[in-house]
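Give me structure tokens for this 295-residue protein.
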Amino acid sequence: MTKRILFQFDCDPQASSFDAVVAVDSGVDHLVPYAGVQATSIEPLVHGAMFTRGGDDLKNTAIFLGGSDVTLAETLLQCVTDAFFGPVRVSVMMDANGCNTTAAAAVVAAARHLELAGAHAVVLGGTGPVGQRVARLLASDGASVTLTSRSLARAQEACDRVAHDAGENIADRLSAAESGSPDQVGSILAPANIVIACGAAGIQLAEKSDLVAAKDLAVAIDLNAVPPAGLGGIAVMDKAKPISEDSDAVGYGAIGVGGLKMKTHRAAIQSLFESNDKVLNADEIYALAKAVEKQ
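Here you go.
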């Protein structure tokens, strides 16, 4: 039986041990890590992966793109797909810094508590890779999304980028807002049904009182695992825990959504070996997270 080989192409000086463990736990027979991979050096690595097997055996080789630089990983993904020759190709997954699996798990967790279509969602600190993906997935499923930053210009730039990258008509469901002061945060959260905090580690973006005051809030998710909490009153281990006796909303911490993230990550790697033509990025991994949730 042909062995399953996963090439781990990481843009950092050392390949991620986290991604390596998940790969092994996903049933990969051989994990081949490469560190410091750059756009100028990746093509021969891709050719080595895809020209050494043929026919149906091609599906037993796959590529995982990781590292801490999501922008570079997106460039590497384009370089990988550009290196393919028609049907002579292998499946590839991009999840640098856990951006796609984290965003997918957060949005699927939110959907446990209300229909996304027609919901009003707020993505606090949404200008980074995870925040932009969360906003994209929410809007793609019909939610009205307010993406915030301490700079209105940066928030608007992120909204424009999300709408452009989505390649579909979601621009009318995206709006930018400045969240630089407590009064601004309270005003933004007041009509929200969903709040997902995606800001930098160790920065609190909203107080517990802001969440309690949002009377239509159904679910709040904090993706920050480093104290202090990104959302006041939500602990890192919380999973659908009531926010307060004065609120019907429930909260999730980073580890509270981590179980679904890990299941999604493993399912995505396993799916790479079903065929030799998969490209797993934000939308594809979100679809897998939905399937995992139903299992």
